[in-house]
Design goal:
Largest sheet: 3 strands, mixed
Distance between the termini: 17 Å
Structural class: mainly alpha
Oligomer: single chain
Number of strands: 3
Shape: elongated
Helix content: over 70%
Low-confidence stretches: none
Length: about 220
C-alpha cells in the first residue's frame, strides 16, 4: 500500500509537469499573428482594465511568472516578457487575470492572501514535528504535524479557483481585445489548461501524502 501511495505522490505531479512543459515548448515555437510580446499583451490588458499603475517587469527563471499583489507588479520570465509566442501571450494574460482579481477583490484570492502567513509557518514546521513524533514515538505530535500539513492542503484547494478564474479572465480579455483568432484561442486554451492541471496534481499529491502519513501513524499506534 505504501509503495502505491508513494507512486501516486510522485507520478501525478510528474505527469502534470510533463504536460505543462510539453505545451509550453510547443506553443513557444508558434508566434502570435499580432506580433506582440508578452509585455505588450500584459500592458494592453492591464490598461484596458484601469490598471495602468500596475507594473510589468522581467524576472529570472523558467515559468517563474507571477503577480505580486503587494507591489502591484506582474513579473514575467524573459521568454514570456520578450517572446511573441502563444505561450508568452497565454502566460502574460493569465498573470494579468490575477491583477484583475486583486482589483475587484476576488473572494478566493483575498482568502488565500489572508491565510498565507499562517500556512507558510505551519507547513515549514510540519514535517519536523512529524519526524520528531515518529522518532520519539509520540503519536500526538505526529497528528499535530499532519494537522499542519492539512492547512497546506487547504491553501492548495483555495488556490484552484484562483487559478481557474485567472485563466478564464485571461481568455476573455484576449478575445475582447482581439489579440487572438480562433486557432490561436485554441492554443491558449490548451496552454492554460495544462498549467491549471499542475495545481490539481499538487492537491492530489498532497492529499495522498497526508493519507500515507495517517496510515503509518495508525500502524505505529
Amino acid at each position: 500500500m505504501d509503495i502505491l501511495l508513494i507512486l501516486v505522490i510522485l507520478i501525478i505531479p510528474a505527469i502534470a509537469q510533463i504536460g505543462i512543459k510539453t505545451n509550453y515548448n510547443k506553443y513557444l515555437k508558434v508566434a502570435n499573428k499580432k506580433g506582440l510580446s508578452g509585455q505588450e499583451v500584459a500592458r494592453k490588458i492591464l490598461d484596458k482594465n484601469g490598471l495602468s499603475k500596475v507594473y510589468v517587469v522581467e524576472t529570472e527563471g523558467l515559468l517563474s511568472d507571477h503577480y505580486d499583489p503587494r507591489r502591484k507588479t506582474v513579473r514575467l520570465s524573459k521568454a514570456v516578457f520578450e517572446g511573441e509566442s502563444i505561450s508568452s501571450l497565454s502566460i502574460a494574460a493569465h498573470e494579468c487575470g490575477h491583477a484583475i482579481q486583486d482589483k475587484v477583490g476576488y473572494t478566493f484570492l483575498r482568502i488565500r492572501s489572508l491565510i498565507f502567513p499562517i500556512v507558510n509557518i505551519a507547513t515549514s514546521v510540519s514535517y519536523y514535528i512529524i519526524l520528531i513524533g515518529f522518532v520519539l514515538q509520540i503519536l500526538n505530535l505526529v497528528y499535530i504535524g499532519v494537522g499542519f500539513t492539512l492547512l497546506g492542503l487547504l491553501f492548495q484547494i483555495i488556490t484552484l479557483p484562483v487559478e481557474f478564474n485567472a485563466s478564464k479572465r485571461a481568455k476573455e480579455e484576449l478575445n475582447k481585445l482581439g489579440l487572438v483568432d480562433k486557432k490561436e484561442a485554441e492554443g491558449v486554451k490548451k496552454m492554460l489548461h495544462s498549467a491549471a492541471m499542475t495545481y490539481v496534481a499538487g492537491v492530489l499529491a498532497s492529499a495522498t501524502q497526508i493519507i500515507r502519513l495517517l496510515l503509518i501513524a495508525n500502524r505505529r499506534n
